[in-house]
Structures are given as structure tokens and as C-alpha cells.
């Protein structure tokens, strides 16, 4: 793996703060939001629909600490844009929204450098103030909406009414997921570099970390990855592509079932992954399984490296949590099974202990676990 230390020049104006929210286009927004409330421990945040004057789109926003997901469905049977998107891609992430400061400067640079502006800067307001937004086209059919909340103090966005609390979710154990750590975009072969360059040119992002297929491969499949991030390194977008292998990689499987480029998984950060996974399992979440031999090898490697893991390895083994480490620290991670019928989107739970990588040391165990699921689907 390669870590990049050169951020390039700091943008003279405009700043990316964090992931603001993720918008998912789904077949049934009410039911999809209910799934994330029940299974992942989100709480209802806001609603837009017929009752609020939204005649075209039903929108359900849910929240857990700093994580906000928005699920949208169309009321209109003649809505060709959303219906064709869902037919091609299935349920998935349509828009990765960023919280920003000085939206005008960011959009001005993006325009100058050739970015496609889907919707130029506009304003929405209510009694809590004014939000300024703009939307850019990134890879595939995925969008980035920039959200400037400098003069807004509301819970989410103008036009949303508060959603009632969900008493069932409150009765289940809280996984305490804190914020979006990163979002991974999968690309067809030979598209990783052009997409990475798009972020460099249009959003003034820089390369943070990368690996290639000489480092990340199993007997059957391989991938390449470049992690793009803003100057402050507060939002990270890994860009993956498949590399040639004996059989179909999980990246290629995603591209084929999603119908092109898109978001393959969302990583949610926690400060206690053991509690998070135990509570998510109690809520009915299913995770990828890795063999016990992974932990036998891990114990040997940790001992020889002198790395000290604070958590009980036997507990991590029981829960099938993966560990990656370097000379500075380590991370703990685990991946859910797909959260819809298509083998596309899934969720990662991650805890970092002074480790800024993305689990390169776990690639073989992770890919072998995914390959077991691919073989069950007849897609390996």
C-alpha cells in the first residue's frame, strides 16, 4: 500500500467539512427507512411527502449521531428518471452530500475545471434560516450535493417535518454508530484513474492512500484502489476497480449487477466495535464470516510484530471482526451481507485506533469470505 503525504496547494477558498448525508433512491422509501431503523438503530429524523406539499417525491430521513441517510421514492408512475435509475441500478446511493463552507467558491472552481453542474447554487429556507446547495455529477449516475449550512440552525433541511419517534427501535440495543468514515465507489476496469483525476481537478481533492493488484489479490480475484480526500482529510472516497483474475471479482460482480459505477459500501465509524456488532446481531444483522484459521494466523503475526491489541482476540474471533495494523496502530472492521437482493450495497462497521488505512491486510480474508457468498450466488 502507498500513503501520500503531498496534499498539493491548499484551496484558496471553500472548505469541505464532513459527509452531510447520503441519499438513497429506493423502491419503497417508507419500508427502506424502517429497515435501517430496525436493523441498524437509526431514528426517524424528518419527512417530506404528500402531506407536506411534496407532490412528486416521498422522502424519509433517518439519523444516528452524525450519520444521516435519506430514502426517496417517486409518487409519479411517469417519473422516467427515477424509474429508469431503479430499473438499472436497484436500490442504492444516488447522492453523497458534503457539508461545506463558501459553496460559491467550490462551485466556481468546479465549473472552471469542467465539472458537470446538475443544479447550480440554490437556496431553501424556513424559520431556522437559509441553506445553500448545489449538485455536481460524479462517476456513473452518482451525484454530490454541496450543502452550506452557515446560516441554518434546523434539524435537517427546510421542507422536512419532524418524524415521530420509533418505539420499537428504542427497545432494541443501541449500536452507537457515530459518523460516516468513508464511502467506496466501484468502477469498471480502467476507470479508477479517470475518476480519481476528476476529484483532483474538480473538487481539489488529493490522493491519500492506494493499493494495486500486486498487493490485493486472492487465487481468483484482485482489485486496485485509490482513496481520494479533501485538503482537511475529513471526507474520504476510495475508488476501486477490478484487476484481471481467474474468476469474477466482487468489484466486477458489483459493476455487472449495479449496471455500472456506483457506491459499493458505506463505512460507519464506532468507538466500540464489539458492542456495536453484538447489538447489530441482536437486531438481526448478518455479517460476512471468516474462518477461524484467520485468527490463528493473526495471533502469530501480532506476537511476532509486538503489536498490542486492547480487545480480547477471542471475542473478536467469536464476532468475526477483522484486524489490520501497522507500526502506528490498528483498525477493527466487519462487513454486513448485502442489504438488498442485488449483490451490490453493503455496510462496513469500523473502529480506528491510530490507524488511517483501509484494511489492506484483511484483503485476502475479506475477499475469500465474499467469494464464498459469490459462489452461493453462482457468480464466482
Automatic annotation (TrEMBL):
It comes from the Eukaryota. Its cofactor is Fe cation. Keywords: Dioxygenase, Iron, Metal-binding, Oxidoreductase, Phenylalanine catabolism, Repeat, Tyrosine catabolism. GO terms for biological process: L-phenylalanine catabolic process; L-tyrosine catabolic process. Binds 1 Fe cation per subunit. Belongs to the 4HPPD family. This is 4-hydroxyphenylpyruvate dioxygenase. The gene is hpd-1_1.
